[in-house]
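[job 4471] stage=fold_predict status=RUNNING
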Amino acid sequence: MTMKELAEIAGVSPSAVSRYLNGGSLSQDKRERIQQAMEETGYQPDAIAQMLRTKVTDHVGLIVPKLDSDAVTRVTRGASQTLAEEGFLGLLADTNNNPEKELAYLKLFQNRPVAGIIMMATVMTPQHEEIIKNSPIPIVIVGQQFRHVPCVYHDDFGAAYDLTKLILEKGRRKLGFIGVTERDVAVGINRRRGVEAAMKEFDLDPASLAFSLCDFTTEGGQHSMQLLLDQTEELDGLICATDRIAFGAMETLKQRGIRIPEDISVVGLDDNWAGKYILPHLTTAHFYYKTSGETAAQLLIDMIRNKKSSGPIMQTMLGYTIETRCSV
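[job 4471] inference complete, writing C-alpha cells
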C-alpha cells in the first residue's frame, strides 16, 4: 500500500499522512483517522526512507575489538540492554583488534543513518583522534581515557598496584610481568606502571622486573611464560596483564613442575569467568565491564536526545574489586 492509498482510506491528503509519519503538526481529528486507517490496513512506513527524510534514527553503532573476549561480552551486554530499554537498536562491528578496521567502521557508521557510536577502544592513533573529533554524530569511548572525547574507563593502574602489593605482602620479591603492546594505554602502559609503583613502595627496583610481551591470548601467555623461565627460574611472583594471559602462564608453570602458589604467586586482571574454575582459582581484579557499557550507552543517549554540541566532556573512571583466591 502506498501513502496515497492510505490517505484516500483515511480521507486526508497525502501531505497530511507525511506530516503524521514524520512528527509534523496535524489536527487531532486527522491524526485519529490516519491511525485508524493504519490499524485497519496494517500499513507500515518504509523505515529507511523515513530515516533519510527526517535524519532521525534509533540505530547506534557498537565497535568492539574482539567478540570472544569476556570483557567485550560484558561491555556489549550492558550497552545493548540499556539501548534496548531506551528504544535504540545496537549494530555490532567486530574489529578483531585491528586499528585499521576501527577506522573503517568509524567512517562507515558516520556515513550511515546511525544516531551515535559506542567504541570499545584499544589504541588511539592521530587518525583515530582526527575522525572522532570531527564526527558529525556523538561518540562515546569505553575502556580508554582520551582527551576531548566522552569516555568511560577503568582504574587499570590502581588494580595492578593493589595486586602487586598483595603479592609483595606475601614475601615475594623476584617478580615477573607479562604485558601487552603499549599502544594500548590502559592495559599495556597503565597496568605495568601500577606494578612498578608497588615495587618502588617496597624498595624494589622496577628494572629488576622480568618482563615479556604477548598478544591477548592464552597461547601468548604460555609462550611468554616459557621465555621468562628460560631467562630466570628464580621467579616467585607473576603479574599478568589479563586473566587469559594468566591462564596460559599457569599452564606452562604446571608443565615445568612449578607449584602455584607454593613456589610462585600468580595474579591476572579482568576477572574472566574461567578464573573461578581453573585450579588453583585465579586471584584477579574485577572490573565492572557491564556497568561501563550501561554507563556509556546512557551517556550517548543523553547526548543524542539533548543534541549537545558543547559543554563539559563527561569522563567517568570506574573502580574495581580485588578477588583474592588460591593462586597467591
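[job 4471] summary: The first helix runs from residue 3 to 10.
[job 4471] exit 0
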